[in-house]
Amino acid sequence: ASSSSITPSSSTTTIASKKKSLVFLGSPQVSATVLDALFNASAAPSSSFEVTAIVTQPPSRRDRGRKVMPSPVAQYALDRGFPSDLIFTPERAGEETFLSNLRALQPELCITAAYGNILPTKFLNIPPLGTVNIHPSLLPLYRGAAPVQRALQDGVKETGVSLAFTVRALDAGPVIARERVEVDDQIKAPDLLALLFSEGVPIMLFDDRSKLLICKLPSIFDGSAKVNADPQDDSKVTLAPKARISPEESWLSFDEEALILHNKVRAFAGWPGTRAKVLVIDDESSNNHNILELKIITTRVGSNDKIRDNDVHDIAFIKDALVFPCGGRTDLEVLEVQLPGKKVTSAAAFWNGLRGYGKNVISDSSSVSVLQSIEPTSLFHPGKAAENVQDSKTTRVLS
Q1: Is the pLDDT of residue 338 over 50?
Q2: 247-395 in CATH: which number?
Q3: pLDDT of residue 282
């Protein structure tokens, strides 16, 4: 892929006279699904456009080997045989050399899908038909960089994809079309993001009922989409900032209700994840204990009222789940966990591993400040005394 300092070759200045020039901007894997749809649509005999350039994030270090690798969009384009000198990777979209190269292409329209860079006015002024963004929310809801995460955190039952013109204000442009998608109560952020882009963009694009990108391109090219686009109602705006999503926000506080924690686990799957610290105490000596940091991978809201007969901080292993008592007399069932440096494991395997060492676990929210400075955290401690609950083991907090 070229950097913004490389001047386009002669092939970049030769634009097919019968087809309109479209530049695509995107970076992650979900963006590659949109690019794939554009490539396929542009190859159709009746197509009125062609993808003349791609703009994406610069190569970065990824995966365990920390090798410098092109963005998923750049890699996909190269695999499709797209010319490498037409793939631009500026650090910022306002770089003069990059903008000069873009002007040389004379694009009539730019399409963005999770590009990850702010587009300045001097960029937006280049394509005469404007820049159109694919945003994974029902605008004006969840404007910002983390619409899927924030929607899941709020526990929404419905979300969708919006096709909107890009203006300087973030995600505030007129909306060309929206596609609604129901949200399953177990789906996680990476899966929902992929679903929104895959079902909302490339798969349904070729369905006559679709209101999105490919079906709307003719109206975008003839100018009618801009005339008919729906201005957003600023009184209904909600924001989805990514800046606040950090490792500090990922800690679970079991004083909150289980549904809130379950939605947080779903929302923060991928990055930054959700975590809890647990205290593992040796059966034979309450002074012998280990503190483990667990990444909470998969959860569901429980309905195990019987364990409420025990102390409020009791933890039970019931069937396939570790059951954490939460605020509001609710229970969070944890199905999968991950220890640092280890693979994801089932709750049953984690529990059995502890018991194999003769160790038990208790929950004690009052001991948070003793064990960890980063609040909140949960302690987890099955003691010696156990009683049967639905063919499971539950244990009483040692006090």
Answers
A1: yes
A2: 3.10.25.10
A3: 62
Neighbours of 34 (CB within 10 A): 25
CA proximity to 159, closest of 177, 146, 186, 178: 178
Question: What φ, ψ does residue 318 adopt, rounded to 5°?
Answer: -125, 115
Tokens 């500090």 identify what position? 248
Helix (H, G, I), strand (E, B) or coil at 316: strand
Phi, psi for residue 29 in degrees, rounded to 5: -60, -40
CA-nearest of 120, 137, 116, 123 to 23 is: 123
Determine the CATH number of domain 10-236.
3.40.50.170
- pLDDT band at 287; cut points 50, 70, 90: low
The pLDDT value recorded for residue 304 is 60
Q: How close are the terminal C-alpha atoms of the chain, in Å?
A: 62
The angle subtended at Cα 98 by Cα 97 and Cα 104, nearest 5°, is 90
- Helical pair 29-42 and 213-221, crossing angle rounded to 10 deg: 60
Contact 99, 30 (CB under 8 A): no
pLDDT tens digits along 45-62: 989 999 999 999 999 987
Residues facing 68 on adjacent strands: 61
Give the residues across from 394 on adjacent strands.
316, 387
- Each domain of the chain, given as residue ranges in start order, spans 10-236, 247-395
Would you state the structure tokens that stand for residue 141, as one six-digit string? 């809801």
Q: How many CB atoms lie within 10 A of CB 341?
A: 5
Residue 377 CB contacts under 8 Å (≥ 6 apart), including other chains: 251, 252, 253, 276, 277, 368, 371
Residue whose tokens read 């197509």: 47
Q: At what angle do helices 189-198 and 29-42 cross, to 10 degrees?
A: 10
Inter-residue contact 42 to 31 (CB < 8 Å) = no
Q: Residues 40, 130: contact at Cβ < 8 Å? A: no
d(CA 388, CA 318): 10
